[in-house]
Amino acid sequence: MSDEKRFIAGVNSDVRKAPIRVAFVTRRTSAQVPAVGEEKVQSFPEVLFRAAIAVEALAIVLVLISLFFNAPLEGLANPTITPNPAKAPWYFLGLQELLHYFPPVVAGVLIPTLVVLALIVIPYFNINVEAEGLFTKDRQKRLRIFWIVAVVFCIFLAVFDVWVALVPTLIVVAIMALAGYTSPDAASPFRRRLASHPLSFWIMTWFLFELVVLTVVGTFFRGPGWSWVLPWRS
Fold first, then answer.
1. N or C: which end of the chain has fewer CB within 10 A?
2. What local confidence, expressed as pLDDT, does residue 128 receive?
3. Would you tell me the crossing angle of helices 199-220 and 163-180 to the nearest 10 degrees?
4. What confidence score (pLDDT) does residue 3 get?
């Protein structure tokens, strides 16, 4: 047998000098790579089928609503008369409510841009990639940071009299504090679930809560001159 075809056992990481690899598996090691079993759902046909059912159900609901309820349309627009209040479409009423408290550049440009960037970047933080609870590791350090950020943000909202945004913020802060002081091994399943949520979950929860509250206030509780009114009295 020539030297080129002779197999010699050894340790070498140079592929050009040793192009042939032989793996020796001892009794104490396993040739299989351990993997954690996770629940998986095929995108086709399972997910696509569910999405199709959801779209059809939504279409049926919208058709039924259009058949039994008339759209709240007003009269023809008159360019010489400006309605008071002049409200934006419902999906922009949250921003219009913020314009009542902040300058246009802040409420219309800065805040939406920061919110969108946060929703894009925060899910890629290590605490979200690892799928662990926000207060699971370094509990005391993260609790201190959480309280500092929460207090500063609440003071900021109070200084500008943004009470409609402060109330949802206080509710979310209270729930996050409950999660922060809950052990992962707590007896209550509800508190264990709270403690297992990452930062992205809390940011998204606060964002959706604020969006709903600001939209509802702008739709039903704002009257002429953007003053506070009660819908059942106006």
1. N
2. 67
3. 150
4. 52
